[in-house]
Amino acid sequence: MIKKEMIAMLLAGGQGSRLGVLTAKVAKPAVEFGGKYRIIDFPLSNCINSGIDTVGVLTQYQPLRLNSHIGIGIPWDLDRNVGGVSVLPPYEKSGSSDWYTGTANAIYQNLAFMEQMNPDYVLILSGDHIYKMDYEVMLDYHKANKADITVACMPVPIEEAKRFGIMITDGNGRIMEFEEKPEHPKSNLASMGIYIFSWKILKEALTTLKDQSGLDFGKHILPFCRDKGMRLFAYEFNGYWKDVGTLTSFWEANMELIDIIPEFNLYEEFWKIYTKQDMIRPAYISDTSNVDRCIISEGCEIYGEVYNCVVGPDVHIGKGTVVRDSIIMRHCRIGENVSIDRAIVDEYVRIGNNVAIGVGEEAENVFRPDIYCDGLTTIGYHSVIPANVEIGKNVVISGDTKAEEYVNGRLPGGSALIKKDGEQL
Q1: Which of 29, 73, 182, 405 could be stapled to 85 by a disulfide with Cβ–Cβ 3.0 to 4.6 Å?
Q2: CA distance 30 to 12
Q3: Whether pTM exceeds 0.90
């Protein structure tokens, strides 16, 4: 019989709607980050670096690119005969077919997978945060406190605390009470959505609450366990942790990677970040180009100027083009004499010659001002930008756009040009 000390269940089914067109066709954990990586690489790498060799990845929304990326887990050394990585989508059962309706409901629907591994402990992770954490140290803390549940927490500014689940602890780290996004928080210790459960406790809670609508860890499981008198402890984490859930935070986290001394270091020898890599040619930077403070991934061909940018694999940047303070994702083709300033350009985008992106004054976005803001221009997956057009700030573009859709060759600040199946929405 299989026996594992601790297995990980990684929740990777979320849409990440606050990333706008970046997640229109892909789950948030599969969005490219830091050039060659995808967001899910970080928790997966944490697992293998922490000695966890059994990971269930729970997928649901737009899973194709995510499934293709994970494969059988070879890049993370998770291609094992026993354990390894298993992709766990919702599936049809004899009585019904259920989508995952909450974080804990997704875990409940995979009880059979966990029972098969016969673990002592189950680590619950989110697939959409950027951080490095040794889960083995957290497990040692869990054991030392004879805890039933340990919740990873980190201090946040008190004015931001109302955005999180907040833990109130005694002097020994035991959680006495917690508040889900409180208007007037009593503490600044925020849950990171990372939990270690003793297996029997998790199974009992999930089975008891299985009929609860939208079963969720923060709203249902933790209160249930606390009310039953179980031992809940907060494990305080003080390292780098970034929720890249908005376009602005996503852009900022990428830009932080190219600081002179980056707060989050991708190049640590003893805590490597692993990813699936395409077998492609090395990068080429021509004698006509100028590159400063950038991450340039393999397969790129740079003939223009690139400043303060994160550039994914196999990107072509033409002569006379100047790109500043931007994220350019893999397989993009950018023409000649283009200027790009503060933009997020998704995978496989084609930009014609003599295009200017991110120009003029800021204006509020007409489509979703809460998403497309802070002067960023966002261009969605597989979009096409015709030659000789000018695009303002806080603009979103998605689809194969034509020159006639740019009035007088311009798309002013705050515009939205989003097409689906050839028709503008």
Answers
A1: 73
A2: 9
A3: yes
